[in-house]
Amino acid sequence: MPDYTGRFAPSPTGPLHFGSLLTAVAGWCDARAAGGRWLVRIEDVDEVRTRPGASDDILRTLDAFGLTHDGEVRVQSRCKARYQAALEQLQRQGDVFWCRCTRSDLARFGQSVYPGLCRLHTSPLNNAAVRLRVPAPCPQHFPDRVLGEQREDVAAVTGDFVIRRRDGFFAYQLAVVVDDAEQGVTHIVRGADLLDNTCRQIYLQQRLGYSTPDYAHIPLIVNAKGEKLSKQTGALGLDAAHAGKLIWLALDLLGQSPDAALARETPTVILTEAVRRWQITRVPSGLQLPADKRVPVDDAYNH
């Protein structure tokens, strides 16, 4: 097996947009430049938000843009037994408790850190979330390949956090940690909007006895209002008819300085050259990255 296994893990809540493409291109190039594998995982653990047909649309878009993946696509909604097994391991270790606190209950404390109200509920309760017990202090740190050294005391920032929701769905934090471990993921390239999840996930990896992957958080593309490009802010789907141009733009914003002539080539040609020249150290280290003013992102969808 290659020393490098990366992954791209979109949520099927709608079509891929340019912000998603930026992360996918970065992760794909990083994996291929290392001679590694690049997996695709559909993160539909939050089934309430899943849109019918979105998963198939995402996979077709990746193919149209030349971003080929290795192995079978993992779908989180089919992996609930694996998440349950991890939760039961944590329960045996005394790492979890059941919490019936509502948002209004917590709001009365006027702070974002969970105050530990239900820590004595170590046996299962109905109509309750499951939280991971976080000791104080709980310092975590990791070297981010784009943003540099990152440090956080999980106890001070979030406190005990939810790993299974009150409605019975497993939380993102638990699902992604189990998936990465079981799929042998060694390198994670994802958007900077997920940076504040990382130290929680590292602590959860430690409690489950998993290895910690290398991380690289890619700056977010923001629109003219300074909002992250997302489905919630009206980001449009990707037009495969202009795949080459959009990939070239993504590489340019990622600091890779692709030759201007490549913008007229096919995705395969552009990506082949991108892998040959890829250097993740060139990726801008800011948390936000305005779209290139010469080629506005929203216009690039429709040209």
Topology:
Blueprint: E1 5-8, H1 18-33, E2 37-42, H2 54-64, E3 74-75, H3 80-92, E4 96-99, H4 103-107, E5 129-132, E6 139-144, E7 148-153, H5 154-157, E8 161-164, H6 172-182, E9 187-191, H7 198-208, E10 214-218, E11 220-222, H8 243-253, H9 267-277, E12 288-290, H10 297-302
Molecular structure report:
The chain folds into 2 domains: 5-77 and 219-302, HUPs (Rossmann fold), CATH 3.40.50.620; 80-178 and 200-208, HUPs (Rossmann fold). The chain has 303 residues and is α/β, with parallel strands linked by helices. The protein has helices at residues 18-33, 54-64, 80-92, 103-107, 154-157, 172-182, 198-208, 243-253, 267-277, 297-302, and strands at residues 5-8, 37-42, 74-75, 96-99, 129-132, 139-144, 148-153, 161-164, 187-191, 214-218, 220-222, 288-290. It contains 10 helices and 12 strands. Helix 1 (18-33) packs across helix 8. Strand 1 (5-8), helix 1 and strand 2 (37-42) form a beta-alpha-beta unit. The longest helix is centred in the first third of the chain and has 16 residues, at 18-33. The strands form 5 sheets. It has a 3-stranded parallel beta sheet with strand order 1-2-3. It has a 3-stranded antiparallel beta sheet with strand order 4-5-8. The termini are far apart. Helix content is 33%, strand content 17%.
